[in-house]
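Subject — a protein and its fold

Tokens — whole-number codes for backbone shape
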Amino acid sequence: MEVKRNSVSFKVYGRYALFSDPLTRPGGEKFSYQVPTYQALKGILESIYWKPTFIWYVDAVRVIKKIQTESKGIRTLKMNGGNDLAYYTYLHDVEYQVLAHFEWNEQRADLAVDRNEHKHHNVAKRCIEQGGRRDVFLGTRECQAYVEPCDFGEGAGFYDNYGPLDFGIMLHSFGYPDETGKNELVVRLWRQTMKDGIIEFPPPEKVELCRAVRQYGPEYGFKRFVNGINFKEAEEGDSV
């Protein structure tokens, strides 16, 4: 596994995690994927340290503890008032090691003066040592997480020498206009597999299962993202 010059590694752990499977959400209940998605790990990295100058790329995640679930009854709010009962299935007692690096956001040419790799790499490492700049969560707000520095691959893991494990088609990530330069929101899917406890992620641009789920621009009634910093308002009278 390639470790880049600006790579960072850390462990993230917590009592619960909920990387919700979108197939279970329309019914009002949530069921967690067995392992974290690329997008969830990217969100953790952005909570640790983020600037619009660069984009985080998750290279790999290592599952340290045994995958186990726990269901809880949750009182949810109804849209017409009152409460309802839903069952959420969480991952229980989780710990992961993450290896990632960053690359410059080419859509933000206005921030080219801030492209100092040495500076951002050192700030990111200091933020990991301090547990992150912002609160870190494992999928959802109620799943508080803790971050500590580590060397990727150190220590024993439950799935060491376990062999391959296939999780099927899972969400990989979202492609947002401020990162792709396109006036659309893209969802990416891929077949997620784990070998000996390690999941190696392909970069977003190499994921083949992609679909645009929302278009942005004046003709669609949404603000248009232009050149990384400017927004063009939707034409008057367009529906939102």
Q: What stands out?
A: The chain is about 10% helix and 40% strand.
